[in-house]
Amino acid sequence: MKQALVDDTEDVSLDFGNEEELAFRKAKIRHPLATFFHLFFRVSAIVTYVCCDWFSRSFVGCFVTVLLLLSFDFWSVKNVTGRLMVGLRWWNQIDEDGKSHWIFEARKVSPNNIAATEAEARIFWLGLIICPMIWIVFFFSTLFSLKLKWLALVIAGISLQAANLYGYILCKMGGESDISKVTAGFLSQAVFQTACPSDFRKPGLEGLEIHKC
Question: DSSP code of 198?
Fold first, then answer.
């Protein structure tokens, strides 16, 4: 009887590390300021574009205001919020031979470097995907209503926000340059997962995976 009790307890193992990591991933937002500005500039640009005729009759003033908000959004999402909220970063680099390389980084998930929370990842990707779709709707509404003076601004909004979306999808998918494969893989993965992938690290840049195109 005593031997049976010992056998029953031998296979019992408690992994508190996984429970702590799961609790952390479901915890509240770690970077509230970055999360706020991830949505603030892009939402402000959309609201200003929709409501500018109500507050001002100056086309130039509205145009410049929306363009500045779009530019601030592009810079903050590309350089700050992507790195803090989901551990992704991308940029262009010119080597010594004058060749252009697109570099995509993904933070490695490790015990000392925990992935972003699910709330932050969800906010990041929803904001990154939904807002360009809204600008595409604006493009067709501007085209069909013949408000062609706003067309350049709408195209700028689509271009700036689609560039960030494309860059971060490549980061998440490991720098794959085939857009059809990237899109199919990203959409299938996004249904089940919103966190940053776990990858290898490159010596000299601890916790990051580097992809060059």
Answer: P
pTM, two decimals, is 0.69
Distance CA 207, CA 160 (A): 28
Sign of the CA dihedral running 136, 166, 192, 113? negative
Which of 73, 192, 71 is closest to 122 using CA atoms? 192
- Give a yes or no: residue 198 inside a domain: no
> Does 13 map to a domain?
no
User: What six digits make up the tokens of 162?
Assistant: 């689609």
Each residue's pLDDT tens digit, 98-141: 888 888 888 776 544 455 688 899 999 999 999 999 999 999 99
For residue 3, being part of any structural domain is answered with: no
Q: Which tokens belong to 120?
A: 């932050």
For residue 39, give its domain range. 25-191
For residue 88, the surrounding DSSP H or E stretch is: strand 88-94
Tens of pLDDT, residue by residue over 35-70, are: 999 999 999 999 999 998 888 788 899 999 999 999
**Are 71 and 42 contacting, i.e. CB atoms less than 8 angstroms apart?**
no
Look up residue 112 and give its two tokens. 């000392």
- Which residues pair with residue 101 across a beta bridge? 93
Type of residue at 117: T
* Structural domains counted in the chain: 1
Q: What is the number of residues in the chain? A: 213
- Is 166 a domain residue? yes
Per-residue DSSP letter, 61: H
Look-up of token digits 């908000």: 69
